[in-house]
């Protein structure tokens, strides 16, 4: 347990960054999609990408919030992002959203699987009856990625470096999460878990999913990474109690820092060589929990995810 806490602390209090938003290369001609980009790290990621001339899709559930974010971003960057409605907690909505994107864009160069929910009330489930955290953070992103994969493969074929990037936002909370399939849907076993334990499980799922994408699609030009964006002040902590929010405000960083690691993975020349890697703040290669490196666990999770969406 000591080494787990050591890793947790190192990632919470990282050394000074050597990578800055200004280091993101020009993204002219690149199509990028960021889930959950109406606020927080996703919105900051979209902001930087717009300043670097990317065509940016903001994918989120709430149309009003998405359009508000697009207005804010246009005011700050002079560039207009595109809106895509995406409810990751409803698999039929995910399917419709992915298919709508493919109708609009045959090519996708970078997919930021950034959206997430953290420690909601235990009674909250997805529309399909899954634990809200695992259903949104893992299953929803798996299905969306699966649907838009043809566009990503086309993006890899078109890109000068022969790659398209899938950047999966995880967390150092994955160090405290192990997969328990009995808790993926509502059940007595799930009710015995804490909301934070279920969050850690979903973040472990993100790392395993990213690694399996790397194994399955790496030879086709897909570069799949997972990362901990760092302790950042965002709306993700909206379900925290007041004491936890106070502590978070004392130790967490500005949201501008939270976008750095995923921007590094998704845009830089160095990022093309990061397939299967896990990154930590700020823009460094890090280590995962040993379970997250188990290809059998990753394959079993992939098979379970495929089973959930086969009849949608």
UniProtKB/TrEMBL annotation:
Positions in coiled-coil regions: none
Keyword Transmembrane helix tagged: no
Keywords: Oxidoreductase
InterPro entries, per database record: NAD(P)-bd_dom_sf (IPR036291), SDR_fam (IPR002347)
CDD domains: retinol-DH_like_SDR_c_like (cd05327)
GO MF entries: oxidoreductase activity
Gene3D superfamilies on file: NAD(P)-binding Rossmann-like Domain
Protein name (database record): NAD(P)-binding protein
Originating organism: Suillus subaureus
């Amino acid at each position: 347990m000591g080494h787990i806490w050591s890793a947790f602390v190192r990632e919470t209090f990282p050394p000074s960054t050597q990578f800055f938003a200004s280091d993101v290369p020009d993204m002219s001609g690149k199509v990028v999609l960021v889930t959950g980009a109406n606020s927080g790290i996703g919105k900051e990621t979209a902001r930087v990408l717009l300043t670097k001339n990317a065509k940016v899709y903001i994918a989120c559930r709430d149309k009003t919030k998405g359009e508000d974010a697009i207005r804010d971003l246009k005011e700050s960057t002079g560039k207009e992002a595109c809106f895509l409605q995406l409810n990751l907690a409803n698999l039929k909505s995910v399917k419709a959203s992915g298919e709508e994107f493919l109708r609009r864009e045959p090519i996708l160069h970078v997919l930021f699987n950034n959206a997430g929910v953290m420690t909601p009330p235990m009674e909250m489930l997805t529309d399909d009856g899954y634990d809200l955290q695992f259903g949104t953070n893992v299953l929803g992103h798996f299905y969306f990625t699966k649907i838009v994969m043809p566009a990503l493969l086309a993006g890899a074929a078109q890109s000068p470096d022969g790659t398209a990037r899938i950047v999966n936002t995880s967390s150092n909370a994955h160090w405290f999460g192990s997969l328990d399939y009995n808790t993926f849907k509502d059940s007595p076993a799930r009710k015995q878990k804490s909301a934070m334990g279920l969050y850690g499980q979903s973040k472990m799922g993100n790392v395993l999913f990213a690694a399996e994408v790397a194994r399955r699609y790496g030879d086709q030009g897909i570069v799949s990474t997972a990362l901990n964006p760092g302790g950042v002040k965002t709306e993700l902590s909206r379900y925290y109690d007041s004491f936890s929010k106070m502590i978070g405000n004392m130790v967490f960083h500005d949201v501008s820092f939270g976008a750095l690691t995923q921007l590094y993975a998704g845009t830089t020349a160095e990022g093309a060589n990061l397939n299967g890697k896990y990154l930590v703040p700020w823009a460094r290669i890090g280590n995962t929990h040993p379970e997250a490196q188990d290809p059998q666990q990753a394959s079993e999770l992939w098979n379970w995810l495929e089973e959930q969406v086969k009849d949608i």
